[in-house]
Amino acid sequence: MFIYSKKAIWISMVFFFFFMIYAQGENKIIKNIFDQEYASTLIHLIQKAKVSIYAVHLSFSIEEGICHEIMQEMVAAAKRGVKITMLLEGKKRGLREKNARTEKKFQESGIKVVLNQSRRVAHAKIFVVDSEWVLAGSTNLTNSSIQKNHEANLLIQSPAIAQSMEKYAQELVNNSDREISIESETDSQIKAITDTKFFLHALDMIQNAKQEICITTYLMDYSPDYPDSSLYRLFMGLIDAHKRGVKIRIFLEQSTFLFNDHIHEKNLESAQFLKSQGIVSTLFDKEDQITHSKIILVDKKKALLGSTNWYSFDLDFGHQVNFVIENDAIVHGLAEYFDELYKTGVIVK
After folding, report:
1. Antiparallel, parallel or unpaired: β 112-116 and 83-89
2. Rg (Cα) of the chain, in Å, rounded?
3. What are the pLDDT digits (tens) for 131-178?
4. Mean pLDDT across the stretch 246-260?
5. Rounded-to-integer distance, Cα 260 and Cα 65, Å
6. Longest dimension (CA), the chain
7. Cβ count near 210 (within 10 Å)
8. What distance in Å separates the CA atoms of residue 168 and residue 182, rounded to the nearest whole number?
9. Where do the structural domains in the chain lie, given as residue ranges?
10. What pTM does this model have?
């Protein structure tokens, strides 16, 4: 388990700063952001913001810890004239109260916060800075997610992708009670997709896999009751891939935490179903670890990374941001990350 410390955060920021200096120029900055790298990356982006920040997140706890520091940096950015607009989930039980406190604090500082009241949950986790930088993936703005969890995000410097994601955030702020499916231009063999676009790309990747499919996700919720659903079709796609000889490895969250014990139950049921179909290489993380990353890797050539779980509501009704990635260096980094996770996995019966 990773342990958060201020020293580690600021050391990471120093290395990130030098990386930025080195990479600026003709080359664009594109970087996998794993686990505890998220805090230093986000803080640096906020500190360097000059014009605007758009953010969409499920939750934001600001009372203490690293999230309090992020809040302070956002307030400081607003004071120096950066226009900040943020959408937070406002209806989901357990989140609306904490997000309402964040809304109040930010509005006192001139930051626009909108609480999503739609039945479509604001499950995306994205920051867009100065119409140029995008940081998005699986990390929630909670101390646990930032300090302890396994998380996977992507940082990309791309005006084309950033402007598409700004549009997405603006449309959510204006009316979140509808699907907003956006597919950005491809830049550096990466594009951003939103909402139900995830299913179409995930199914296509699975159906066209030739050698191996690797998946890590927080929630995998197989249900045989809805054979026409997007989720069922993804499971059937995995089974078909297995039948044609594609190797499949899956790494899932195992949890003894009271707030998400249902996650463990659903993941175990899904693993048992896949095993009954001959897919036997599903491993779980250790009980004291939370694995919240959401990645699909196919043939170590293409990846899908972002906020969407293998869960019907996420697939069909959640507001989500994911990346379709064919950039060799980024895919290679994701494959190494998955392999390291998978090495730590345990069998759960």
Report:
1. parallel
2. 19
3. 999 999 999 999 999 999 999 999 999 999 999 999 999 999 999 999
4. 83
5. 22
6. 59
7. 12
8. 7
9. 6-181, 197-343
10. 0.91
CATH fold match for the domains 6-181 and 197-343: yes
Range 6-181 has CATH code 3.40.50.1820: no
H/E/C letters for each residue in the chain? CCCCCHHHHHHHHHHHHHHHHHHCCCCCCEEEEECCHHHHHHHHHHHHCCCEEEEEECCECCCCHHHHHHHHHHHHHHHCCCEEEEEEECCCCCCHHHHHHHHHHHHHCCCEEEEECCCCCECCCEEEECCCEEEEECCCECHHHHHCCECEEEEEECHHHHHHHHHHHHHHHHCCCCCCCCECCCECCEEEEECCHHHHHHHHHHHCCCCEEEEEECCECCCCCCCCCHHHHHHHHHHHHHHCCCEEEEEECCCCCHHHHHHHHHHHHHHHHHHHCCCCCEEECCCCCCECCCEEEECCCEEEEECCCECHHHHHHCECEEEEECCHHHHHHHHHHHHHHHHCCECCC
Helix axes 230-243, 261-276, angle to 10 degrees: 40
The residues that bridge with 86 in the sheet, in sequence order, are 55, 113
Of the chain, the end-to-end C-alpha distance in Å amounts to 23
* Inter-CA distances, 60 with 28, 39, 109, 169, 190, Å: 29, 13, 16, 16, 28
Domain 197-343 fold:
Endonuclease; Chain A (3.30.870)
Q: Is the pLDDT of residue 9 over 90?
A: no
Query: How far is it, in rounded angstroms, from Cα 337 to Cα 129?
Result: 26
Residue whose entry in the numeric block shows the structure tokens 């594009």? 191
- CA 147 and chain centroid, separation: 15
User: Distance of alpha carbon 12 from its chain centroid, rounded?
Assistant: 20
What are 280-310's pLDDT values in tens digits?
999 999 988 999 999 999 999 999 999 999 9
Q: Are 334 and 150 in contact (CB under 8 A)?
A: no
The encoded tokens of residue 264 equal: 């463990």
